[in-house]
UniProtKB/TrEMBL annotation:
Reactions this protein catalyses: urate + O2 + H2O = 5-hydroxyisourate + H2O2
E.C. no: 1.7.3.3
SUPFAM superfamilies: Tetrahydrobiopterin biosynthesis enzymes-like
Entry protein name: Uricase
GO molecular function, one term: urate oxidase activity
Pfam families xrefs: Uricase (PF01014)
Pathway: Purine metabolism; urate degradation; (S)-allantoin from urate: step 1/3
Oxidoreductase keyword on record: yes
Gene for this chain: pucL
Keywords: Oxidoreductase, Purine metabolism
Amino acids binding O2: T57, N245
Organism: Hymenobacter ginkgonis
Summary of the function given for this chain in its UniProt record: Catalyzes the oxidation of uric acid to 5-hydroxyisourate, which is further processed to form (S)-allantoin.
Xref: InterPro entries: Uricase, Uricase_CS
């Protein structure tokens, strides 16, 4: 039976980049991690050790930093498009470039209602994400997303009516804490959109739906979030969500002579429910 090379790609991951954008009177601080993946005519490198078509990953890293000075002044989606076009246009052997950018969110400090010109706060778990794929024929796909978004509400959530067997001890409830570390990724319908405006619109829709939805399960809320985003944003083709259920278990106070009034809980890290879903247009 003949043996041949299957699908393959290579690139540089976790190119950590910080950028100061200097405006008159204030600075912006941006911190991202960029990953580059190239697909193309690399068979000879694998089978013959011929590196003549292998653009060094160190060169890829340097390209990210060099292009950041002029081109990383707006959205991470726009910067991803610049990088993808650079690698595809400069290297005939590359059939597809995939750029993934994860942004750590920093905000200017504010005192007495006045934003400080060059001091920032950040370090939270929420990160903004963008992925760009550009094929040599010009076909371009842009995804955006959120990672590490901590969400919690203290009521308007329940879980009841589920099947029970001899191993079921979980009591039904119509009033519980709903908490999750949400991850979302959505695909845009085009590559020439107002990515900043659309990101903020999707982000706000996600938060608003989570907070106002009368949740009968995590799945119920996941679908409601995706449905609302697609209804409100024509430029989003589909959206995938990951919503692990971060459990807060009511603590039994009765042994201590106190009534259980759904106010004291044990926060658990593991195990946890893991709920995923993709909402698409019909």
């Amino acid at each position: 039976m003949p043996i041949k090379l299957g699908p393959n790609a290579y690139g540089k991951n976790a190119v950590n980049l910080s950028r100061i954008i200097r405006h008159a009177g204030h600075h912006e601080f941006r911190q991202v991690s960029v990953s580059v993946q190239l697909t193309g005519d690399f068979d000879a490198a694998h089978t013959l050790g011929d590196n003549s078509l292998i653009l060094p990953t160190d060169t890829q890293k340097n390209t990210v930093y060099a292009l950041a000075k002029e081109h990383f002044t707006g959205t991470i989606e726009a910067f991803g498009l610049v990088l993808a076009r650079h690698f595809v246009s400069r290297n005939a052997q590359v059939s597809k470039a995939r750029i993934e950018i994860l942004e750590h969110l920093w905000q200017r400090m504010s005192f007495e209602g006045q934003a400080h010109p060059h001091a920032f706060t950040g370090g939270g778990s929420e990160k903004r994400r963008a992925v760009v794929e550009l094929h040599a024929d010009g076909t371009t796909t842009v995804w955006a997303g959120i990672k590490g978004l901590m969400l919690l509400k203290t009521t308007d959530s329940g879980f009841a009516g589920y099947p029970k067997d001899e191993y079921t001890v979980l009591p039904e409830t119509t009033d519980r804490i709903l908490a999750t570390e949400c991850e979302a990724e959505w695909e845009y319908t085009a590559a020439d959109l107002n990515f900043e405006e659309l990101y903020q619109q999707v982000h706000l829709s996600l938060l608003r739906t989570f907070s106002t939805h009368k949740s009968l399960s995590v799945q119920h809320t996941l679908y409601a979030i995706g449905e609302k985003i697609l209804e409100e944003t024509d430029e989003v083709k589909e959206i995938s969500l990951i919503m692990p259920n971060k459990h807060h278990i009511p603590f039994n106070l009765e042994p201590f002579g106190q009534a259980n009034t759904n106010e004291v809980f044990v926060a658990t890290d593991a195990p946890f429910g893991y709920i995923t879903g993709t909402v698409v247009r019909g």
